Structures are given as structure tokens and as C-alpha cells.
Amino acid sequence: MSNASRLQELNQRLEEIKQQQLSLDLTRGKPATAQLDLCNGLDGALQGDYRCADGTDSRNYGGGLGIPEAREFAAEYLDAKVSQVMVGGNSSLQLMYQYVVHAYLNGVSGPESAWVNDASNGERIKFLCPAPGYDRHFSVCESLGIEMIPVTMDENGPDMDQVESLLKSDPLIKGIWCVPKYANPNGIVYSDEVVARFARLGKIAGANFRIMWDNAYAEHHLADNPPELANLLALSEAEGTAANAIIIGSTSKITFAGAGISFIASAEENIKNFVAYLGISTIGPDKVNQLRHMRFIKNMDGLRELMQSHRNILQPKFELVLKHLDEGLGDKTVNGKAIGTWTRPQGGYFILFDTQPGLATRVIELCADAGVKLTPAGSTWPYKKDPANTNIRLAPSFPSLEEIDAAMQVFVLCVEIATLEQAA
Question: Does this entry carry the keyword Transcription regulation (predicted)?
Fold first, then answer.
């Protein structure tokens, strides 16, 4: 069958689907209701006992570092020492934003270290942004007027030759965003060599450089024998660069997405200065929520048992997406090139699909016209500018299997239509 005949056939099929008036959404990596239900035991977990391990009353003011049992848990979760850890509120993104604002305006170690001091004569401070990456990281930079520099990613993580070259040549680069395990959106796990090179960046970067190490998916596995991530903080301590490493995590996709707890770890002096900064705006975090989490999760064994239940819900959804991609597009080519390529993540919340160059926007438009909403093209790049216009992030977690089945039928159809249109 010629490309023109095939395109006519597919367009007719798409028109038939439009008559169904679908309303499906694969845009964001939200936990499904069934996942949230796994943690309904948080409600009432305290049973009227609000005392922390050290005897303090979690209902009262204070405790900027977090309650003792939550700090011990966070230290194990983040591969850190208790003295290096602070436990916050429900959002790790909020902690990251607050830390960047703290570094930008107040300085990581006093006013003289404020990043804004280096932004003079119309110049701006800068962040390195491995791309494709997490859109909300990029929004933090945009909101503060921090210039973003995309960095190439491969199967091992960011291109460290590029990272090191940029840092050596520009002292205005003050940070780099990272999702080092099951990266958003491509599912990459940074290799041991890449993490070791990250630990040495503080030796070549300009003053007060920070690695924003957002380990959001540390325990979010979709495979047996999941890959291990090297311990950046421990490696940095060995290199004498621990102050450069800011390690972040949370329970946002473990317990209640909107009512979890978040963690941050770094050199002790960093944590001390950050807690002092936060103390200007709050007299302490929600310690009651921290305590009920510890009573419910108990320890890392309890967390990993819970995460297996999450996997039981998530894995069939990912497998269904991949089944549609394999069966609908796996062997198809146009003009001698694959219609698309996609990742097969071992964990995390996303599958990254790449169209042929220049087609992501058109595929998303076609899907939207058929009632399937996808993350806007370019969202995984700084300034929402995907230079090749190829990346499409698929988020299977929230929809039901039936909704995924319907949405993916539309998606593979639209990918092929867009590819044939361009080839015509």
C-alpha cells in the first residue's frame, strides 16, 4: 500500500474515533486513586499519641530539622548521616525552590556568598539543565531569571565532558538540576562513573556551586533486581566537596501525593544555614504529619513493602503502553527510518517517546483533536524549546488500564499519521 493510501485509511479511522468523544489524559505523573488508597492507614495512625521519640509534643512549635525518627528514616532513605538531614513538609519541589532562593538572595554561607552578587553588568547567573528533564525544575529557574543551559543526556546520564567544560569556562554557572535515578522523563539511571565525576565538580566549578540532586524515584522500581545508584553525598565527602551536593527526596509518590513529607541532605553546615533561613518564615514543619508517617511506614523495610504494592498497580500500565507501542509502531518505517523510538524504564513514572524530527507538536495536536491530552511539546526542555521537536512524555500512572488502552490506540495512530503527512 502506498503512503498516500495508508494515510487516507488512517485518517478515516481517526475520524471514526473522534465520534466517540473521548476525554483521556496522559499528561502528568500523578499516583492513581488505587495507589493513594494504599496509605489510608495514615488517617488515625497516631491514635491520640503525639509524642515523638525524644518525648517532645509534635503538635507544638519548633523542631526546624524535623522530628528525630523522621530524620533517622530520611537519612537511610537518602544514604546520609542523621546530622546531614532535614525533614520538611509535603513537597520536595518546595524545598528545592526554597534552597535556590536561599542561595540566590541570602547566600549558602552568608550574604557574601549570595549568587545575586555575581549577577552584575547585566549578566545573569546560570544553571545547567540536562535535557530532556523535569519541567518544574526549569520553572524554578525561569521564575528567578536564572539562565538555563541545556546539557546533552545519554544512557549513562548527562554528558560529563560537556558539563565539566562549561563549568571550567563560566563561573556564573551556579548549579545543575538532576533526577539521577529513573530520570524524568527518560528513565535513565546515572552510571557510577557519572556520579563519581559529579562528586568532583566542586573542584572545578565557580564559587558556591550546587548540585540539585532530586532523587525523586529512589524506590520506585518496575523491575526485579533494580539498578543501584552510587551515593553522591558519600563520594563528595571523600572528595572534600560535600557542600556542593544537595540531595532531595520525598514520599510524594509513596504515601499521599499532596500530604507526604520531604527530605534534604547535605554537608552539616549547609543544613544548619538552610534551617536558619527557613526559620524566618516558619516556626517549624508539620511534625504531626511527620510522626504519622513514621508510625505508618515504620522503616525502610515497611516502605519497600509498600512500594511493591505500588509496583503491582503501575507495572501493568507501563506494560500496556509498551505493548501498544511495540505492536502499533515497532516494525514500521517511513522513508527508511523508524516511525518512533521509546524508552523501557526499569522504574519511575514516565516513558519517553521520540518521533521523527519535527513531529512532536503535530502528534500532540492530532491526539488532542481526538480527545487524548498529552504533555505539551517542548515541556521537557528549558524554555519549552525542544530543538528537534521530537520528545513526547507519556505518563501512564493515573489513568485506568481501560483508559490507557483507548488512549494508546489513538496515540500510535496519530504518530503514524503525522509521520506520513511529513513524508508526503
Answer: no
DSSP class of residue 383 equals G
The CA-atom distances, in angstroms, between 295 and each of 43, 48, 273, 288, 402 are 11, 12, 29, 11, 36
Task: Tell me what the mean pLDDT of segment 306-330 comes to.
Answer: 98
CB burial of residue 190 (10 Å; 0-12, 13-18, 19+)? buried
- Other beta carbons within 10 angstroms of residue 371's beta carbon come to 17
**Is cis: bond before 150, omega within 30 of 0?**
no
Q: Which of 395, 319, 406 is nearest to 32 (CA)?
A: 395
User: What is 3-30+305-423's CATH superfamily?
Assistant: Aspartate Aminotransferase, domain 1 (3.90.1150.10)
Say whether 366 sits in a helix, a strand or coil: helix
Residue 232 phi/psi, 5-degree rounding, is -60, -45
273-299: per-residue pLDDT in tens? 999 999 999 999 999 999 999 999 999
Supply 180's cell numbers.
Answer: 539521577
Write down the CATH number for the domain with range 45-298. Answer: 3.40.640.10
- Extents of the domains making up the chain: 3-30+305-423, 45-298
Digit-coded pLDDT (tens) for 2-13: 889 999 999 999
pLDDT digits (tens, 9 = 90+) for 42-58: 999 999 999 999 999 99
Identify the residue whose cell numbers are 525542544. Answer: 386
What's the grid cell of residue 408? 494508546
In this structure, the strands spanning 126-131 and 173-178 are parallel
Say whether pLDDT at 1 is over 80.
no
Q: Global pTM? A: 0.96
Concatenating the DSSP letter of every residue in 243-292 gives GGEEEEEESTTTS-TTS--EEEE--HHHHHHHHHHHTTT-S---HHHHHH
Q: Could you give the CA distance from residue 177 to residue 412 in angstroms, rounded to a whole number?
A: 32
Q: Taking Cα atoms as reference points, which of 304, 373, 235 lies closest to residue 76? A: 304
